[in-house]
Amino acid sequence: xxxxxxxxxxxxxxxxxxxxxxxxxxxxxxxxxxxxxxxxxxxxxxxxxxxxxxxxxxxxxxxxxxxxxxxxxxxxxxxxxxxxxxxxxxxxxxxxxxxxxxxxxxxxxxxxxxxxxxxxxxxxxxxxxxxxxxxxxxxxxxxxxxxxxxxxxxxxxxxx
Length: 160
Hints:
The chain is mainly alpha-helical. Helix content is 68%, strand content 6%. The chain has helices at residues 3-9, 14-27, 35-42, 55-101, 108-139, and strands spanning 141-144, 151-155. A two-stranded antiparallel sheet has the order 1-2. Helix 2 crosses helix 3 and helix 2 runs parallel beside helix 4 (55-101). The longest helix is centred in the middle third of the chain and has 47 residues, at 55-101.
């Protein structure tokens, strides 16, 4: 027999099957790597990995599993970054469209109208404040600080 025929008739050991299965899983970037998957791919039971003779392959599987977990997390984070960048670009384009369609801020006419309404409301509030102060002075003997509007002294029940 030739050398190639001898290689075909020689069967691989369980450890070699597990190593080949692990290599196949590592080669597939989306494959889940764990003891059960390696054993299934090798056509063996995962319980054989508990044997002392399989300790080397077991540590290789655990190391590969840790590396794959980190790779999948990084891939997930990269996908999220790409999604957020796309959303940011979309938001920027919407903002630029809105800026083109509508000028910045209210018009001068709108601003003057708003200022006028605020001034008239403020004047009305001061008028009510003065009217209430004079009612208090008339009804009760009250000393009021003219600068701050603070009530300094009140004598209830006594009229002037």
